[in-house]
């Protein structure tokens, strides 16, 4: 079934339900009671024709039994065939997809299309009137339509939000219109209020976009077993670059071992300059774990760059 056919079926079902509801309202209390008893007897009769367990002895659910009762009522077999079941599932998926499309905004395109059809009809009418020699009347009608459209647009703009239900005090002053518009209203509902959506959003702090300290350097080529104290001791005591104020090594999340890189902050600019001179030199840090064969490591010491420069790379 196509989407248009499905819509037509849904509309017919709604009309049928409405008709039944209206006919029920017209009935008296006794007639309603009789109708209820008759429905109950019919349901019990249909329920007797429906199996309670399947071929494997597993009991059917309430939903399955309800579905089977509907089938028996239509004159079909209680248990649907595999092909019928597949068709039902496919139909449900199709309906679900259509509802999702409608919720996503597809329904508005249909409304717009219907609006286009109306506009085409109006244009055709205008052409016919012109051919009859009634140009003036057609122009007036078009002007009226434009005026109506403008009014509708204005009302839509004003009625975007519902007015506040909270009562306005008598001494309240609307700073947008200075109470020139009547009746008294909150400033939020004032037509003179200037709306600037998005201006009250707080920007995120731009971390790392400032120039980093000249005393901070980036170190690479460190062994995986390296600890912060080992790196600090190497630059302070062995290389005599000065005091290391802060040492941050980048670690693997799972093993918590050093990735081989880190950041060092010295107490003076001279200390950072001395460390930069060590770039490309070979070194060995004495760690807690001593291996028989050690690979010769090449130290990399560079300036810490601005975040904007590193993002480009």
UniProtKB/TrEMBL annotation:
Signal peptide location: none
Top-level division of the source organism's lineage: Eukaryota
Molecular functions per Gene Ontology: RNA binding
PROSITE patterns in UniProt: RRM (PS50102)
SUPFAM superfamilies cross-referenced by the UniProt entry: RNA-binding domain, RBD
Parts of the chain that traverse the membrane: none
Keywords: RNA-binding
Compositional bias segments (type: Acidic residues): 113-133, 140-153
Compositional bias of kind Basic residues: 10-21
Residue segments, region Disordered: 1-40, 73-168
Annotated RRM domain residues: 215-292
Database matches in SMART domains: RRM
Bias type Basic and acidic residues, positions: 22-40, 86-103
Name the record gives this protein: RRM domain-containing protein
Organism: Chaetoceros tenuissimus
